[in-house]
Write a structure and sequence with these properties.
By secondary structure, the protein is of the alpha+beta class. Helix content is about 65%, strand content about 15%. The protein contains nine helices and six strands, in the order H-E-H-H-E-E-H-H-E-H-H-E-E-H-H. It has a four-stranded antiparallel sheet, with no helix packed on it. Helix 3 runs antiparallel to helix 4 and helix 7 (about 265-285) packs antiparallel against helix 8 (about 330-400). It comes from Flavobacterium aureirubrum.
Length: about 450
């Protein structure tokens, strides 16, 4: 009778395992499989920081115009209508007195005028070049934001891959713990094991289930974080591709060379130096004279109820020029030039500082990268050894030649080795991402 009960329990156990497998397959089919390429594409289209940086670049591009630099003339159309009603008295030289109540006086003026600064000490040309440099600065800032967002997407994505691998590892250990509990229960039913062995197996299984629940919580939270970076609904469910491929062929000298050419922060400092130099050029331009030309065509119609002339009408062309030169301004010109030169010097120092910082970060990140590459190989070997040890332990446990403590130790060693191996791949990938971000070489 006891053997029949055991068989029924075994059939029930296998039935539930089959049901859970089918359920997991159906759930996996319903989930979106989000590739890294698609995640990056969504981030580039939706991310708020990228949108803001892109709009700022559009503003910088719009500002690059010869009119904004002061090279074009200003044309204004004017219209003025002045009216008055007054009680007026006129006393002439011969003593004649003219008096008129409610005397009207109407003056209508309209026309078009042009004012053009044709020379301002070359400042307008320096301003145009400065606007172009500011556009380049906007491009560098947009590239910086894009690289940072892509780096963040990569980091969170591969963290999810790691979490997903750990979930699979925990599923494996739960299956092993369940098998252990079944074996312990069968041995207890036939009188070959104590109740204590069954209880220990049940406790360990429950512990593994708690660990799995915590891991599922971490995994779900990481998916919410990735959805946030992608600027989409936090509730969107998906799976990631369960693979981490690390580029183990990176060379430090090549990375430094790339960083010197295309790191966005370093490029921004170089552009800032150029902007400061153009600002100095504009300040020096104040030493030159400024020449303006003006012309216009105006109409005048004046009507008066009292006086020698009842109506005066005029129209015609006006033109002229104006030249000015700063002779003395309380030494403000000298002060402004001195300040502008100091800003250029500060920009040079900022470039040197950023370059030194960049090289230091690259060297540190590269050493971490090399260590993590070595750890991948070591942890993979450890995982293979732990798996082999677990298989032997399971076989011995089936025939009852090993204790439950030894079985649990082998089981934990295997799951820990698998987690460490997954984490080593993840850390190596993070190192690769950090190096490529510093080099300004993130693919997108």
């Amino acid at each position: 009778m006891r053997k029949l009960v055991v068989k029924n329990r075994n059939y029930t156990f296998y039935f539930w395992n089959l049901f859970l497998c089918l359920f997991c397959i159906l759930e996996t089919t319903a989930q979106e499989v989000l590739t890294l390429e698609n995640a990056i594409k969504i981030a580039l289209e939706n991310n708020f920081e990228i949108k803001i940086a892109s709009n700022n670049l559009t503003i910088d591009k719009t500002n690059v115009a010869i009119g904004n630099a002061g090279m074009l003339p200003r044309i204004n159309a004017t219209l003025a209508d002045a009216n008055s009603v007054q009680n007026s008295t006129q006393i002439r030289q011969d003593g004649t007195i003219n008096t008129l109540d409610n005397a009207r006086n109407n003056t209508l003026t309209y026309g078009v005028g042009l004012d053009w600064t044709v020379f301002d000490g070359f400042r307008m040309f320096a301003r145009l070049d400065q606007l172009k440099e500011l556009q380049k600065l906007g491009e560098a800032n947009l590239k910086r934001v894009i690289i940072q967002r892509i780096s963040a997407v990569n980091a969170v994505y591969y963290d999810l891959v790691q979490q997903q691998q750990q979930l699979a590892a925990l599923d494996t250990t739960i299956a092993i713990s369940t098998q252990r509990l079944t074996l312990a229960q069968n041995r207890f039913n036939i009188g070959k094991a104590s109740k204590l062995e069954v209880l220990n197996a049940q406790v360990d299984l429950n512990t593994d289930r708690v660990t799995l629940l915590r891991q599922k919580e971490t995994y779900t939270n990481q998916k919410i974080i990735l959805n946030q970076i992608l600027a989409r609904e936090a509730s969107i469910d998906f799976k990631v591709v369960d693979k981490v491929s690390v580029d183990d062929k990176l060379i430090l000298n090549e990375l430094i060379s790339l960083a010197d050419k295309q790191n966005p922060q370093l490029q921004a400092e170089i552009i800032n130096k150029r902007v400061s130099e153009l600002e100095l050029k504009q300040v020096k331009g104040n030493r030159y004279p400024v020449l303006n030309v003006n012309t216009g065509y105006n109409f005048l119609d004046n009507q008066s109820s009292l006086g020698f002339t009842s109506q005066f009408i005029a129209q015609g062309l006006t033109y002229g020029f104006r030249a000015s030169l700063n002779v003395f301004d309380g030494f403000a010109q000298n002060r402004n030039e001195k300040i502008a030169k100091i800003r250029v010097e500060n920009a040079k120092i900022a470039i040197e500082e950023q370059s030194q910082l960049l090289h230091s970060e690259l060297n540190i990140a590269f050493q971490t990268y090399l260590t993590n590459i070595d750890l991948i190989q070591l942890e993979e070997k450890n995982e293979a050894i732990a798996k082999q040890n677990l298989n032997i332990t399971v076989d011995k446990f089936r025939i009852g030649t090993i204790t439950t403590i030894e079985f649990r130790t082998a089981q934990l060693n295997f799951i820990n080795a698998k987690v460490r191996s997954s984490n080593a791949q993840f850390q190596a990938k993070l190192s690769e991402i950090a190096l490529k971000e510093l080099a300004g070489n993130m693919s997108f």
